[in-house]
Amino acid sequence: MSSFACRSLRITLLVLFCCSGSGEKAFEVHVSSEKQIVEATGSLKVNCSTSCENPQVGGLETTLSKEVLEEHPRGKWKQFLVLNISQDMSFLCHFTCEEKQHSEHLSVRVYKPPAKVTLKLPLSQVFVGEAFTIECMAEAVKPLESLTLSLLREGETLQNQTFGGAESNAIAIFNTTAPTKDSLNLSCKAVLDLRPHGGHIISKVSESQILEVIERTNDIPTTIIIVVTILLVLFVTSVLLCFTLGQHWHRKRTGTYGVLAAWMRLPRALRQRPG
User: What is the pLDDT of residues 13-63, one digit of tens each?
Assistant: First the structure.
């Protein structure tokens, strides 16, 4: 086969390939929405459109309830309102043009703002320079990867913690040290940043709590007083016990208590009570 014939065959095959490829993609389908995230049980507007001039069939496939808000007279585009979206899901937009069908998917996520944000302190007071922990919790938040929990002092951010994973209560443990003697006004702040998904920022702050920071006092004198008092009580107790045992032993030997016998041996004049 001549080189000219080979070249012609290659050109013919290339043209057939290009023509067949363009035939498969004779029209385009587009699906979009203003945002890709919606609050749980909320609704979302979804737009479906095609480049086909006269589509035969077109629509949005979903298991949820939907309404057609607007549509092109020839069906080139349609706007739907999808209702009661309660979980992450995908919508299918499809059109049929000249007996060929094309479709596109739109993934939508569901968010849940923090229902409650709480601050938990281990103690009501700490010493200056003492290390302690603070717990911040945000209940039932979704998506967690969009959440940031912050520890605030007088409204100023001290520490932050981000999260990831499935929906659950988010708990942040902050380790810190008590500064100078003062009263610390502490609170927790939860921020759900939905801007990457076309949403907005949602924030919620817990009730503030007061943590007293006190200075350590010299406890040595108090300790000494306590120890001396205990020793003194033990000494007096031991003396009384020895005296009682001694009297008991003396009675066994003589039949009388030693103190009473000594009293009886005193002259009568000395034993008489004064006046």
Answer: 343 344 444 444 579 999 999 899 999 999 999 999 999 999 999 999 999
Q: What is the DSSP letter of 115?
A: S
* Prior bond of 113 cis (ω within 30°): no
Rounded distance between C-alpha atoms, residue 234 and residue 231, angstroms: 5
- The Cα–Cα gap between 262 and 35 comes to 108
* CA separation for the pair 92, 64 (Å, rounded): 12
Contact 46/70 with Cβ under 8 angstroms? no
- Strand-pairing partners, residue 171, are 137
The gap from C-alpha 262 to its chain's centroid, in whole angstroms, comes to 83
Reading the block at residue 102, the tokens are 């094309």
Closest CA to 159 of 132, 178, 192, 134: 134
Distance (Å, rounded) from C-alpha 171 to C-alpha 114? Answer: 12
| Residue labelled with tokens 């979804």 | 46
Tokens for 140? 């039932």
How far is the C-alpha of 40 from the C-alpha of 50, rounded, in Å?
A: 30
106: nearest Cα among 69, 72, 61: 61
Closest CA to 80 of 90, 91, 66: 66
Diameter of the chain by CA atoms? 163
Q: What is the C-alpha to C-alpha distance for residues 122 and 257, in angstroms, rounded to an integer?
A: 62
In this prediction, residue 5 carries a pLDDT of: 41
Confidence (pTM): 0.66
Closest among 160, 198, 259, 189 to 36, alpha carbons compared: 198
3-state helix, strand, coil in the chain (%, to 5): 25, 45, 30
Q: How far is CA 232 from CA 43, 67, 226, 228, 246, in A?
A: 81, 91, 10, 6, 21
Q: Each residue of 193-206: pLDDT tens digit?
A: 999 999 999 999 99
